[in-house]
Amino acid sequence: MTDSNTEIAALREALRSAETRHAEDSERIRRLEQDLQEVRQEARHSMRNILSVVRSIARRSVASARSIEEYRQYMDGRIGAFARVQSAISRHPGRGVDLGSLVADELVSFGVRLDGQATIEGEAIRLRDKPAGLLGLAFHELVVNSLTFGALAAEGQLHITWRRQAEGPASDLWIQWAENRVAPGALSRQPKRGFGSQVLEEAVAYELAGSTQIDLSEKGLVCSIRLPASCLA
């Protein structure tokens, strides 16, 4: 092969390599653009969900408030609870929210002690963003209710536990919030049905395909929540 032929062959090989690299680069760019589009769609969807929850909080808070000050307290508490969950989501995007931390953060925000006043027990569970947001609000309402009417208002104890029903992808998650008053029946005033009940009974059922059972006795309130495996991260 002459020098000229060798140069032509080398040039052709270089062109083929350049075309291959160009095709590979184009494919990478296409995939990056697709990923970016998916991230943008997910961000828009997440923002719509956040705004929907905030609107719901505002609407239902004003419906149950008896004064401007009470409305402010409702909004501060509920938006604060929701913001704590969103902060946890942003710290580990795509990984979900740890259930134990979700419960503990809400209790600690009210100054509830985790060394006897309240106990938390359950395996490591991470929740998807939407279930975590709704459960954060539910736990907030349960803490407020307990501090106002329940065990935490009567020097009682609070026990939060959870477990998977069975192994495998189809297993449900069961959460139990159980209060135990030191002096059963000491508090005669019962909580009214409001935002907390709507979150627990309606949102869990319709938005998460779960269920809630609330039992109230002289010993205190027991709230049992079932969530399908689709709620887990």
From TrEMBL:
The keyword ATP-binding applies. SMART domains: HWE_HK. Its EC number is 2.7.13.3. GO terms for molecular function: ATP binding; protein histidine kinase activity. It catalyses: ATP + protein L-histidine = ADP + protein N-phospho-L-histidine. Residues 42-124 form the Signal transduction histidine kinase HWE region domain. Keywords: ATP-binding, Coiled coil, Kinase, Nucleotide-binding, Phosphoprotein, Transferase. The keyword Nuclease does not apply. This is histidine kinase. It comes from Rhizorhabdus histidinilytica. The lineage of its organism: Bacteria, Pseudomonadati, Pseudomonadota, Alphaproteobacteria, Sphingomonadales.
